Amino acid sequence: xxxxxxxxxxxxxxxxxxxxxxRYRVLWYPGELICKRKPYEKFQIKQLEINRLxxxxxxxxxDSCYTADELENSSI
Length: 76
Known about the structure:
The chain has one domain (4-73). By secondary structure, it is an all-alpha fold. It is globular and about 35 Å long. 32% of the residues lie in helices and 0% in strands.
């Protein structure tokens, strides 16, 4: 499925993605853009926390990628 959400949002994971399983399919790497669509979902809040750590050089798993589901349900 094409990523039509990129017409309005450049973030890899977007809570406006029309793909019904985007939460399990789309990957996000620490430091990448975060969807600004509100209200913020749990995965967006976790992304903000991770990117704050990235800016301080305190996030250790820079080579790892995450799905929205993993961001919401895993201890990262």
